[in-house]
Design goal:
- This protein has 398 residues and is of the alpha/beta class.
- The chain folds into two domains: 128 residues, Aspartate Aminotransferase, domain 1, CATH 3.90.1150; 230 residues, Type I PLP-dependent aspartate aminotransferase-like (Major domain) (Aspartate Aminotransferase, domain 2, 3-Layer(aba) Sandwich).
- It is 43% helix and 14% strand.
- It contains 14 helices and 13 strands.
- It has a seven-stranded mixed sheet, sandwiched between helices.
- Helix 4 packs across helix 5 and helix 4 crosses helix 9.
- It is globular, with a radius of gyration of 21 Å.
- The relative contact order is 0.17.
Length: 398
């Protein structure tokens, strides 16, 4: 039977991880994998999360299943974190999912079940798993222009021009903030124009929110999303807690849906329950309970854990911004040009440097600097002591 299996395309990030692991050089940089690292090269457990673990260990009395939608207190907290009070709560529903990827998968299952057979439009470039999941689920999708490779900024005019081909009922997949892989974000004005566009054309947005708090701030990073949700009748949001709570391996996420009126809420909720049951039955509880505790309880010093979490997240964000500014300055000096000034303007962990594949391969071979073939780098994979070496290496291959 198994001899009939087909070869699957190799995941480029996983392949890069294997190459990095097999490289015996001490001076090597892993800038491919999308995880936050501190200056010691470690992905830290946030203090607020550590306290939440202690609280959960003391207070949890059972390991029985949670419901099909998971920890509903967690879901309610995520709704508040993402949408605040911008949409009436009787128009919002949600369910816990195994990570942001799981949330995206469940929302796409919901979209696939529609008799209208909508096309999903994704940015070019985008996170590779977007197209991979769409292909796997057999959902029609098309790409729209997003990134100007010359300026390394959003090409909004081309984006809007491509989106004119969308049909009523189609789905527009957007990155909520910190676009992956480019790092180039939509402006507030862009979000407003897209909101009007979706309203005029009857387009349903699906927002992938993986990095809230990593760009300009917890609230600032969802400004455009909230404006869209408060003005449109329907919307889907896939939320991840991997980055902003550091819960990568716990797989914590949520699928959120905004419906046009409260009467449609129950049928959407029942469908989400059904898809969860068929996909994973009950979502994992541990990480979601930690987020619930962080957003609702005091720590050992009676300080609200949410304040500790916010402060830690702010420090992570400011460190990444400082890395961006410092790297842009060093690249300006080492290349004697302003070619890489955009690095300071981008947000989040990633930037697309605009290097050729040959230049990327030279960096890997000659300097042990590992990045994805399209020249996406994870800024949070660098520390300040490595910036000068990195900038000189880049200057030597261009």
């Amino acid at each position: 039977m198994f001899e009939k299996l087909k070869d699957q395309p190799e995941d480029k990030i996983m392949a890069l991880m294997a190459l990095f692991a097999n490289d015996k050089r001490e001076e090597k940089f892993d800038l491919g994998v999308g995880v936050y690292k501190n200056d010691n090269g470690k992905t830290p457990i946030m203090n607020a999360v550590s306290e939440a673990i202690s609280i959960l260990t003391k207070e949890q009395k059972t390991k029985s299943y949670v419901g099909l939608l998971g920890n509903l207190n967690f879901v309610e907290k995520i709704i508040g974190l993402v949408l605040d009070d911008k949409v009436s709560r009787d128009r919002i529903l949600g369910g816990q999912a195994p990570g942001g990827t799981g949330a995206l998968h469940q929302l796409l299952l919901l979209i696939r079940s529609l008799e209208t057979n909508p096309t999903v439009w994704i940015s070019s470039p985008s996170w590779p798993n977007h197209s991979a999941i769409l292909k796997h689920l057999g959902i029609n999708f098309l790409e729209y222009s997003y990134f100007d490779t010359k300026t390394c900024e959003v090409d909004f005019d081309s984006m809007i021009n491509d989106l004119q081909n969308m049909k009523s009922g189609d789905v527009l997949l957007l990155h909520g903030c910190c676009h992956n892989p480019t790092g180039a974000n939509l402006s507030k004005e862009n979000w407003a124009e897209l909101t009007n566009f979706c309203l005029d054309k009857n387009i349903v947005p699906l927002v992938d929110l993986a990095y809230q708090g990593f760009g300009d701030g917890i609230n600032e990073d969802v400004y455009g999303l909230q404006n869209m949700a408060s003005n449109l009748p329907e919307m889907c949001i896939a939320v991840s807690c991997s980055k902003n709570f550091g819960l990568y391996r716990e797989r914590v996420g949520a699928s959120l849906i905004v419906v046009s009126d409260k009467n449609r809420r129950q049928i959407a909720l029942d469908n989400l329950k059904s898809f969860n049951r068929l996909t994973f039955s009950f979502p994992p509880d541990f990480g979601a309970s930690l987020v619930d505790i962080v957003l609702s309880k005091d720590g050992s010093d009676k300080t609200p854990l949410v304040l500790s979490w916010q402060n830690e997240l702010t420090q992570m964000r400011l460190r990444m911004l400082d890395l961006r500014t410092s790297l842009a300055d060093l690249l300006r000096r080492s290349t004697n040009s302003n070619r890489f000034d955009f690095v300071a303007r981008h947000r989040g962990m990633f930037s697309l440097l605009g290097l050729t594949l040959d230049e990327v391969l030279r960096l890997r071979k000659e300097y042990g600097i590992y990045m994805v073939g399209d020249s996406r780098i994870n800024l949070a994979g660098l520390n300040h002591s490595q910036l000068e070496h990195f900038s000189l290496a880049v200057a030597s291959v261009i």
